[in-house]
Design brief:
The protein contains four helices and eight strands; from the N terminus they run ββααββββββαα. The chain is α+β, with helices and mostly antiparallel strands. A hairpin with a 3-residue loop joins strand 5 and strand 6.
Length: 172
Amino acid sequence: MSNDGKLLTPTTLQFERLLPGPIDRVWEFITEAEKRSKWFCGGTSEMSAGEEIKFVFHNSNLGSPPQTTPEKYKEFGDGFESKAVVVRSEKPNIFAIEWEGLVTFELIEQGEMVKLTLTHEKLQDSKETRVGTMAGWHTHLDILGDQLNKRESKSFWTVHMDLENQYASKID
């Protein structure tokens, strides 16, 4: 299984990862703000359909060593806040949110491992959005894998900017 994301359509991307279980542990890292903050963003932990989640991003502090936000992303700098709405929550298999489109996390047990399929639909139809979103999810999911495997992660922005260049050369 490749860690690279794939475009299903110009406005839909998907990632698959095989993560160490158990499934309830992976579910907690996706849905509980404290654990989610270690790989993606903190905020609140609302779980029922229709509820609003507050996201607080500190990408500069993800991985080691902490880094300053690149100029290109200053508007999304440390402490950036965003909101999402829970669309679907079926513990421990499906968690979907309206956030810059529709983001669905699907978890399936595979022995002692858990297959995570992340699908982000309804993206803005632009190369810049596709490239930035793919690099962002790829980086965040790498950090999630490191957290679940109890490994140290590389600095978010170093990895993200490298991946952004790689995806820019592959995507229209």
